[in-house]
Each structure stands twice: as C-alpha cells, then as structure tokens.
Amino acid sequence: MLIELNRESPLPLYAQIVTQMREMIRRGVLKAGDRLPANRELAKKLGVNRNTITAAYEELTAEGIIRSHVGQGTFVNDVPILGAIREERVATFPMSWNAVLTDQSRESSFSNFMNIQSQKDTISLSHGLPQSELFPLEDFRLSLNRAFRKEGQTLLQLGLSGGYQPLQKHLAAQMALLGIQVTPDEVLITNGCQQSLDLISRILVRPGDEVVIENPTFPGAISVFCGANSKFLSVPVNQRGIDLDVLEDILTQRRPKLIYTVPTFQNPTGTAMDIGARRQLIELAARHRVPIIEDDIYRELRYDGADVLPLKALDKYGLVIYISSFSKVGFPGLRVGWMVAPRPLIEHLNALKQRSDVHASMLSQAAIYEFARQGLLNKHVRRAKKIYAERRDVMLEALEKYFPAEAEWNKPEGGMTIWIRLPESLNASQILLEAAKQGVIFSPGERFYASQPQCHLMRLSFTMTDAAQIELAVKRLGAIIKTQLSRWKTHRGILIAEGRRALM
Ligand SMILES: Cc1ncc(COP(=O)(O)O)c(C=O)c1O
Q: Topology of domain 135-374, per CATH?
C-alpha cells in the first residue's frame, strides 16, 4: 500500500492518510474485506506517531468505510463510498481531537470514579466518601439562605483569589487549635485537596523532578505526581506510617522535590503516625531540606485513641505545606478545601490560583462558613462520627466472622476504610468481578499503588452503607474469597501431587 505524506502540507498527516486510503478504496486498490496494516506497522512504515494512524483509522471507521475487530485487525467495509457525500466530507474535514491531544491528557488515568455508578441494589464498600443520606440538608439550606440574605450581592460578585475572608479567618482560628499559628492570609482556600496538590505540584515540580509518595496512596495524588512526565520515588507504608528507614535511604541518595504524606488515617491503609514518627519525619526532611505536603483530610474522623499533632504543628523549619478540606467531614460536592503554606510560597500559590480559576465559589465558601460558624458542622461531624464508628465495628466483627483465617486487616482508629491483606494466591480484582455479580463492590488494592501493585489487597469502606448491609456484603465477600481460596488449594494440591508423581 503506497501512501505518500507531505509534511509541508497544511493538511494534517492523519487527514492525508484518510484521503489516500479512501482514494485507494475508490480505485479498487483496496477491496472489501482487505485487512489494513496494524497501527504500529503502518506508523513505522510511514515514520509517524501511532496516534496519527489511530486518528486516521478512527476517521475512516466513523465514515463507515472500515471496521476494527479487537484481536483480529482492521478491514475494509463493503460500502458504496464514492458518492458526492463522501467527496463533500473530504472537503469539510471534521476535527480529529485524538490527533492533537498531548501525551499528558492521553496518559492521565485518573478516572472519574463517580462514573462507576453501581446498580441500584448493589452494596457499595467502594468509595471513601460520606453517605449522602446523612447530609443535614435542612441545616445546610438554612446556612446557605442566611449567607445569601446577609451578603448575596457580594457573594455573586468576583472575589479575592485567597478566598472568602471570614472563612480564611475561621480556618486560621481552627488551625491555632491544632497548634498551627497562621494569619488568615496564609490560608489559601482551594477547590479541595485535589486542587491543592495540583497547584503545589505546578509551582514546585518541574518535568524530570522526583517526588516521594507513599506506596500505596490516594489515587488522586498518583494522578498529580506520577503522570506521563513525572518521576516518583515510592516509599512503603508500615504500621507507623511512611517507612522512615526506606525514606532515609532515598533522601541520602536522591534529591526529591517534595514528600507527599497522609500521616493521619492514611488512604488506603488507615495508618496513623505516632508523635515520635512524626518528629522523626520532620527532622529527616529538615536534614535533607525537602518540603513535605501533609494531607490531613481525615483528622476529624477519629473514633478511638488520642489526637496526634499535625506535622505542621511540629515543624520549626517552615517546610510543611498543610492541606485539608471539607470533603470528608462535610460535603465533597461543595469543593471547598484549604492549604496553609509558608509565607514565601503562599503568594505564588495565590497567583497561580488566580491564573487557574480565579477563586473557589464564593457561595460555597460562605455557606460552609455559616454552617461552621453556627456550630452545625460540629453537630453534623459528631453525629456522622458516631455512626461511622458503629459501622466500622460492625465491619470488623463481620470480617472476624466471615473472612478466612488467612486474611489479615488492621483496626483503624479513624478514617473511612479498612485495608485487608488476602493470601497472595488471590487477586482482588477477580474477587471484585464475582462480587459485583452478587451485588457487592469494593476497591481492589492495586489502584492505590503507583508502582509494584499488590493484587491481593482490598479496601473496604464502611461509611456509605448501613450496618445491616455491611454485614451482608462482608458475608458475601467472605464466601467468595473462601471458595476461591479452596479452589486454589485444590489446584495447588493437584500440582504438588503431579509433581511428586513426575519425580517418582
Ligand atoms: C488522602 C486524600 N486526600 C484528598 C482526597 C480528596 O480530597 P478533596 O475532595 O478535598 O479534593 C481524598 C479523597 O479520597 C483522600 O483520600
């Protein structure tokens, strides 16, 4: 197949391929049923990127001229394509966005997990989110109304990029209660922790820079720090949080740009660092002059044990950037979070926030401020915590009752999830497939790993489902896991027996 590309032509390369292939089909050089070369092969032959061939094939497929079968290849269709309409299409070429997407967008793997809508009767242990049914809608509506009545005109007007000032002031006072002394203008309001991470990475991390992340960790952080052009160094998490020995080894050999950690109820392991480990981490980072991002989003959701000071409160060196949000204790859909950064950074972050989206919604900020100011947030958190603690205990009991003796898990003192280690012969994604058929979903552990994914781990959330459903879901999961385990044992038994026979 002869295709000639003119790199000087204003017509994009993929469009030239489409035009010439269409012409070959019209002249009968390519006939109905003929197989077209595979993307990789044609790309190599023409000296173009594979995406260019993909875009060309997508265009011809959209026109009905060719069709692709997974695993078999791409074939010419049996269609009359020579009419005037086709010719018209050549002239008014539709834009192929695939051909112009950057590598970053192509490789971004952070799926919109709310798209994974479970079926109506499915019990979801999948998302670490507050349960919508617990939202105090009436209280929040009153707060929203009050805020709007008080200063609706201001709230609908453009605001300051640092945030709604009463909220900044309120958060500075809250921070002081945690031992973090800041002025309100050192608190930057963002659209949640996810945006805080994005802003921080954009001012501190250049392409090629290395960033330390915990492994496993929050997938949203993986999407920010482990994208197409990023390098990352992953550090395992043990019972005391980020493994400080491994971290020390890394810091003595490399010069990472920052360390991202969730010291309190780490997602997904649920681990909380003790005060000693926190102090060690600060000293280590200070010795190597590496900033830390402390993601403290789960702090308020503590059910047992004593509070431990945030890293930021222990930081005498000014190296910790603190981030949190109202997503776990309040309402994730409001998209209101904040960060407290050392003064030299906050101005850059402010400027970047302005460049990105000017500021977080004034109405959301004012409403959550009003809700908090009136003590309604605390009231809601107290109620939710009580319910979540009961659900956690129900889940722990059900795990004891229904899971096989070979499985292990922690008892998290807070947070929203339990992290479970199954025997290595099992694969949590396969268990999920079977579980989904039986109306239960959860998060397989591998989605929390940026490197060396562990497939025999699973994360169960206890916040979004009531106690009876939790018991039922764990019972079903336990039965699936036991069946898969016994199948594996039988299979292994046969293999061993066969091995022995072969040796005899
Ligand atoms: C550790 C951690 N940080 C941040 C987030 C997301 O926070 P936000 O909704 O404020 O962007 C999550 C959500 O699961 C999380 O687990």
A: Aspartate Aminotransferase; domain 2 (3.40.640)
